[in-house]
Amino acid sequence: MRLSTTLPLLPLAAALPTAHPDANASARPLPLIIWHGLGDRYDADGIADVAALANELHPGTLVYPIRVAPDGSADSRATFFGNLTTQINDVCTTLSSNTSFSANNTRIDALGFSQGGQFLRGLVERCPGIEVRSLVTFGSQHNGIAKFQNCGTWDLVCKGAMAAIKGNAFGDWVQGNIIPAQYYKEVNATTGNPTTEYLEKSNFIADINNERANKTKEYKHRLARLDNFAMYVFEDDKTVIPKESGWFSEVNTTSLEVTALRDRAIYQQDWIGLKGLDQKGALVFRNASGGHMDLSEKVLTEAFLDFFGPERKSLVEEVKEEVDQVMEKVREGAQMVFEEL
Asked: Which InterPro entries does the UniProt entry name for this protein (predicted)?
């Protein structure tokens, strides 16, 4: 199944679905939010297919495809043009103010395709009004990109965005208005260290990766609360450069030497909580065959069954529940004996 993403649009106030009270709430699947990729739109057929699969595997799943514009065409354009800080703040406000997704009422699951994956991670880190259980990303760019993608012959929106960069990826206007530039990462070719301009000017990726000297502690705290953070990388991905960014790896674009996440400072010093997640078994690295977003239903089904659906009790919770049941039977038996006496 090749994704190109979507679901019908409602006026913004009514766009979010609403869960209905359920006496058996513990068996109800957690709500699922989906953030699509570059050039896609929330109302594309691919997203509708994903939502349908979610409900086939976990009946009753409340699915919300994230949108940052009032119609599909504008939403697609907003994947190239816009300010990620503003977009994430708007999504945070929308979800936090809806009882079906707010942390005051429920945890939720999150599924990100391509750039939507790092946007969802940014949302997890920056938005106190939601509580995400599982974050699953496919072909995302968690460590940024080293090169901008090539545009299709007739993709004028893409060409317009790339033309606006014009070798000035870290200019104030570009960082505030061109989406791919906000997760572009520049490193010194000799040392492999991030450039000063990148660290000072990056509007998004340097911030959510806590690469600057002053770390935002809340980012680490919020990401570390995840039960699962699963990252899928496509084996033959030629769109994301480097593809290993999907696992937070650093790649020297000259020697092609790969430095894996666990060998990097972001992990060893636990800048954003990845080490903590790994230590509790919540950090998952997986491959998917094929090129960028050549996503099979088999792989997607595996992810849905492993990470989404109803809340799962921990071993401690299951043991406590069994002990409580035994104690209740003991109390009932004691009461019967007492009454007979």
From this structure: AB_hydrolase_fold, Palm_thioest
